[in-house]
């Protein structure tokens, strides 16, 4: 048989509830400050309800967008296409430097549209071709502009400049050789033979 609890032993619980209610009532219905206290409580409760509602709305929108993107990627109509420069650069770097054999920090990567520009110096032509091939395998990369070179050779974009500079220097030296030497009087600003 189940034993019933003695109602006389729980009188203190009822007294505590009544006393607490009386204190709350006195606090809220105080003739001097009760109205302001009730208004402040109502404002804070409203703010808490609005913040909770906004947070729930944000979480629901995020979940809907995430699920629709994931489903789209699985189905195939929303597959990721063109990545902007920063995203593509991050993707190339993360996939490229997973391979420990590729020398990290020896060359720079830049992205122009969907073309990756490689600049720097590597130890061998085999390393250069391996890096170029690894970059071409990254999704979203349509081309590679390879300006890598080995030590002791000019960068591919500098070779034309160096050749043009050498040709210009040779032409200037040839012009100086054909021009008569200037007289000391001419250099000082004195009389000249006209």
Helix percentage = 55-70%
Radius of gyration, rounded? 41 Å
Number of strands: 3
Query: H/E element string?
Result: HHHEEHEHH
Low-confidence stretches: none
Structural class: mainly alpha
Task: Outline the biggest β-sheet.
Answer: 3 strands, mixed
Strand order in the largest sheet:
1-2-3
Please give the alpha-carbon distance between the first and last residues: 140 Å
What would you call the shape?
Answer: elongated
- Percent strand equals 5-15%
What's the overall average pLDDT, rounded? 82
Number of helices: 6
Present the secondary structure layout:
Blueprint: H1 11-28, H2 34-75, H3 85-96, E1 107-112, E2 115-121, H4 125-136, E3 143-149, H5 156-178, H6 184-188
Parallel strand pairs: 2-3
Antiparallel strand pairs: 1-2
Summed up, what is this model?
This protein is mostly helical and 194 residues long. 58% of the residues lie in helices and 10% in strands. The longest helix has 42 residues, at 34-75.
Keywords:
3-stranded mixed β-sheet; mainly alpha; 194 residues
Structure description:
The structure is a single chain. The protein is built from six helices and three strands, in the order αααββαβαα. The protein is mainly α. The chain has a three-stranded mixed beta sheet with strand order 1-2-3.
